[in-house]
Specification:
The protein is an alpha/beta fold. Helices cover about 40% and strands about 20% of the residues. It has 2 domains: about 10-125, Rossmann fold (3-Layer(aba) Sandwich), CATH 3.40.50.2300; about 130-230, Winged helix-like DNA-binding domain superfamily/Winged helix DNA-binding domain (Arc Repressor Mutant, subunit A), CATH 1.10.10.10. The longest helix is centred in the middle third of the chain and has 20 residues, at about 110-130. It starts with 7 loop residues before the first strand and ends in a 6-residue tail after the last strand.
Length: about 240
């Protein structure tokens, strides 16, 4: 059975050439591809279909793709890959801030999209597929469970996207150890960090915000200058 067999992709894109080339390419790779061209119909389509992956253009007729991402994020747990304008950092950062799991610059090379989709699916399946010694870590009031994919801070359950949860699990399972951006990028995507990709930094910022960490002097997820990030096992009271 191939990795992509029976996986459903909802491609939300109004450019006919992109739809044709990308859609056909993904279908040849064994994916089932559905298409929606309008943003004002996208939210309903995503929530009704609950596809395995959403590939979402940033600019759509009827409703902006970023607004679509914002509206569905709390009700759709699968990965969202946003297609953003080339070299437009604000678009990429905004997409991640709104809960997208990854961004892909346009024009989107089909093989790159395929690789990113597969990476997202691997991350989502990692909890069940990869043998691990522990399914849960508890540090003071913080508790993260890999099997249930839940995070609690005290009695409050905090919701995270697929990529955010995977990053938090990676940090928590290496508590007290500095992880470089190369380490994180390699484990999250299977590729080396190129020094320009800011998605890791943006996700760290989102994690801190949701976990109540001081953005100016973070204590729970620390930045170690010129080395990387460190999840503290002791600052969760």
């Amino acid at each position: 059975m191939s990795e992509s067999e029976m996986k459903r992709v909802l491609l939300i894109e109004d450019d006919e050439i992109t739809v044709k080339t990308l859609g056909r390419f993904l279908e040849k790779q064994g994916f089932s591809v559905e298409h929606e061209a309008r943003g004002d119909r996208a939210v309903e389509r995503i929530l009704a279909a609950q596809p395995d992956v959403v590939v979402l253009d940033g600019m759509l007729p009827g409703k902006d793709g970023f607004d679509v991402c914002r509206e569905v994020r709390s009700r759709y747990r699968g990965p969202i890959l946003m297609l953003t304008a080339r070299d437009e950092d604000p678009d990429q950062i905004l997409g991640l801030e709104l809960g997208a799991d990854d961004y892909i610059p346009k024009p989107a090379e089909p093989r790159v999209v395929l690789a990113r989709i597969r990476a997202c699916l691997r991350r989502g399946a990692a909890g069940a597929a990869a043998p691990q010694e522990r399914d849960e870590f508890v540090f003071g009031r913080f508790r993260i469970n890999r099997a249930a994919r839940t995070v609690h801070l005290g009695t409050e359950e905090i919701s995270f996207t697929t990529a955010e949860f995977d990053l938090l699990w990676l940090l928590a399972s290496n508590a007290g150890t500095i992880l470089s951006r190369d380490d994180i990028q390699s484990k999250m995507r299977g590729i080396e960090h190129d020094g320009l990709d800011r998605s890791i930094d943006m996700r760290i910022s989102r994690l801190r915000k949701r976990l109540g960490d001081d953005p100016d002097t973070p204590a729970r997820i620390k930045t170690v200058r010129a080395k990387g990030y460190l999840f503290s096992p002791t600052d969760w009271e």
